[in-house]
Amino acid sequence: MTDAPSAKPAAPRSFQEIILRLQAYWAAKGCAVMQPYDMEVGAGTFHPATTLRSLGSKPWAAAYVQPSRRPTDGRYGDNPNRLQHYYQYQVLIKPSPPDLQELYLGSLRAIGIDIDMHDIRFVEDDWESPTLGAWGLGWEVWCDGMEVSQFTYFQQVGGHDCHPVSGELTYGLERLAMYVLGVDHVMDMPYNDPDAPIALLYRDVFRQTEQEYSRWNFDVADTDMLLQHFKDAEAECQRILSQDDSDATGRRIVMAHPAYDQCIKASHLFNLLDARGVISVTERQAYIGRVRTLAKMCADAFVRTEAGGADLSAPTHGDAA
Amino acid sequence: MPDLLIELFSEEIPARMQARAREDLKKMITDGLVGAGLTYSSAGAFSTPRRLVLALEGLTDESPTLREERKGPKVGAPDKAIEGFLRSTGLNKDQLEIRDDKKGQVYFASFEKPGRPADAIIAEVLEQTIRTFPWPKAMRWGAGSLRWVRPLHSILCVLSDDAGARVVEVDVDGIRAGDRTRGHRFMAPDTFAVSSFDDYRAKLAAANVVLDAEDRAQTIWHDAEQMAFARGLELVEDKGLLAEVAGLVEWPVALMGRIDDAFLELPPEVLQTSMKEHQKFFSVKNPKTGRIEGFVTVANRATADEGATILAGNQKVLAARLSDAKFFWQNDQRLVTSQGLSGLGAGLRDVTFHNEIGSQGDRVARIAALAGEIAPMVGADPQVAREAAEVCKADLQSEMVYEFPELQGIMGRYYAQGAGLSDAVADACRDHYSPLGPSDDVPTAPVTVAVALADKIDMLTAFWAIDEKPTGSKDPFALRRSALGVIRLILTNDLRVKLGDLFAKGYAGADGADLLTFFHDRLKVYLRDQGIRHDVIDAVLAMPGHDDLTLLVNRAEALAGFFKTDDGENLIQGYKRANNILTQAEDKDGVEYSFGAEEKFAEVDQEKALFAALDQAEAEIAPAMAQNDFATAMGAMAKLRGPIDAFFEAVQINSDNEILRRNRLNLLSRIRQICMSVADLNRLEG
Lengths: 321, 686
What we know:
The complex is a heterodimer.
Chain A: H1 15-28, E1 32-33, E2 60-69, E3 85-94, H2 100-110, E4 120-124, E5 127-129, E6 134-143, E7 146-157, E8 160-161, E9 167-172, H3 173-181, H4 202-220, H5 223-241, H6 256-275, H7 281-302
Parallel strand pairs in A: 1-2
Antiparallel strand pairs in A: 2-3, 3-9, 4-6, 5-6, 6-7, 7-8, 7-9
Chain B: E1 3-10, H1 15-35, E2 42-48, E3 51-57, E4 66-74, H2 79-89, E5 97-101, E6 104-113, H3 118-131, E7 152-161, E8 164-167, E9 171-172, E10 175-178, E11 180-182, E12 191-193, H4 197-206, H5 213-230, E13 234-235, H6 239-246, E14 253-258, H7 268-279, E15 282-285, E16 292-299, H8 308-344, E17 352-354, E18 358-359, H9 360-378, H10 382-391, H11 399-403, H12 410-418, H13 423-431, H14 446-465, H15 479-492, H16 499-505, H17 512-529, H18 534-541, H19 549-562, H20 566-589, H21 605-626, H22 630-638, H23 641-650, H24 658-676
Parallel strand pairs in B: 7-10
Antiparallel strand pairs in B: 1-3, 1-7, 2-3, 4-6, 5-6, 7-8, 9-10, 11-12, 13-15, 14-16, 15-16, 17-18
Helix pairs in contact in B: 1-3, 5-6, 7-8, 8-12, 9-10, 9-14, 10-13, 10-14, 12-13, 13-14, 14-15, 15-17, 16-17, 17-18, 18-19, 19-22, 20-23, 20-24, 21-22, 21-23, 21-24
């Protein structure tokens, strides 16, 4: 085993301490600690450090916090467990190492879960993202009956088979931290150290924003405008990807990431429209299909780039000799 | 003779796949070994969340040496052909034999195929098994291309006999077989070597792994029952959950907890479903109150605090889950109290049932109209049946059923009661989905029966109208189940309805004849399961009135009973003899002998007796059939056996006298006509 089982770290005291410990743990295990992606996404998986980097043959190891938005889950800050804005901690390692389960359990120890006193279980949970054209097999991890993480071996992303396979870990940070800190309502959770000169609870940071966004998401967001933005993002994504691989000076630059930004935008706009209740059951499938088409096109583009593992030594038609 | 032990050690295998995987492993390995010439005396397969295990006893050391003979090319064939033959047999030309064949002289090779050691065969079969294992869903991992249900970590493959144990050399994509395994993930994670199955099982037990799922299930059940009993409570049986939980743990430790009083107002079905679906808890009932008051969770380990932390954590998760359930329950109740059950279901009109068939609301309106029409046929008040149908799907719009779809119907009944509707309506809300499975109880309450029939007939006629019928294994709308449901509703309640009439009142545009054939196919399967021969069913299906299922089945049962008697069996032989002679004569003469026989041409007593017997049979059968009294009709038919046998004994049909011949053929025709008025005996075999 990679960790000395005798070294039981002290219990963390705040939300941020749990995040810091995860950062330190995965940094020590060799992951590139990245920063959140600077766009609205529904889950950490949407970060290009996961979606795009899980494609192609190049090894990769990244860990990061990703703020995630799920407009339909907004409850004006009243519900003890539901938020329209929350944080996920995401780890992606390609190829998945043989001791990934042990590495994961080490991360639970690092945040103060005494493995010897709890019942940790790997319960079947196949993961599928219809919007990303992705699926994988794995588990939800239970700690005393509570789901604390998702653990997935990616098999396909953007319609491409994953070779090698990435191992993905997703921790729902609020839920996990509430469990570790013994808090029943998310808003009561210490955000920073409770003994800090200015001690802040989760409510001090997020209660008001939950209210504001809940109102906007459900009642106010301009649906005509959102629909137009969706169309714009879709069109721009397609336009970017229809460009020649080489620019005016002959440099070969496939714009997979800018296109993928538009795909992320379209996905979030769809979520907003859904929260406004203007998408019918039948339309829903159609919208998801449109986002998936974009995701697939972006994946197709990414695997033609260097980071996507393409062999660019062979000259292509657009390249200057 | 050595014993073989195989363990495939992986990351956690989904519980639902383990039973099938055990069987597949046993079958694939033993089939492979036997196919390669080995034999064994017994085989046992086992699984835990992390391992799939096969133990074989009394395996032979090697496959037997076989002599093989193979025919080669003709003498004088091109050298290339002969060289190829030599290569394939491993012989040289001097060792070939020349024999005479139809087409001339031919080379024959005769050689021994030496037996192979068990090790080599096992290695081959095991690798093949791993590479082609039929997991419902398999995956790749890391940089490899091997597929398994979850990453495969190690292979243990040991042959052991009195002389000791040896590892069978196998290497599958870099995973080399060895003799080592691990204990419980948390309680005993170190590796250890094993030398035989007994050694393996004992060392695993010492390392906190119970190998046999059956043992784990028994431990769980026994411990849970004891704990409940000690507090004067009883465990609610759930075999499916028990099997699943046994597949989730290697070292089961049952822990019992109480449900907070704040949640005891929830219906027991809600408590049970929430605990089972979300947390895989068993429910614990208070036999005095009938309420679910506690739960048993099964941990995968023992802890220093005897599970106190684990139980407290589970209890907390349960409280959060039940808070949600209570929230749904109260919201639904509030809506039902203020707006009635139809208020709850108002949103159904916005829910698409099927693009071509319309919304759920449209469907409910059709079911209500149909239930009103069916009501008089089943002894229900049409007004009440319509009312019940109008609200029977309302609970699909409730928050509770949105969260727990399996509570559909059950919640409908609670909410109907909450809305102050009658018991008949409330029961129909709950039971109109029944029967679902072939062993489900069939509703008998008239209002429920009317709604249940209307629901299923609407479903069937609607999908028939848009030509979305089941094909082969594809039946996405479970239409076979619906049809079987209608069949069982009709038969159990002894209903006299014509399916054709029901279809005509259903969704417009369905091909009723085709749908009836579909029903007949389902009925055949159903009756075959009840032990009625398919040819007997065919014999009655060919008769008029075959869209009245109760009539059909009564007739089939009477006929099946009749042919179990001596008279019945002999009568059918006599009938067939008569029919064969008649059919041959009709074919030959190009006429149909149905002019009626005349008694005045009867020559012998046996012939006259047959006339009398047929007259009497006809007189008894016709009124009996008119009253659907099949027993009497069959009895009358049975009495024909003696006269028919005697007739054939005494009389030659194909007389030289053309008048007599024609008259006797016409007499045979009467036998056919009378018997055929009961059932189409031509369909019967044997």
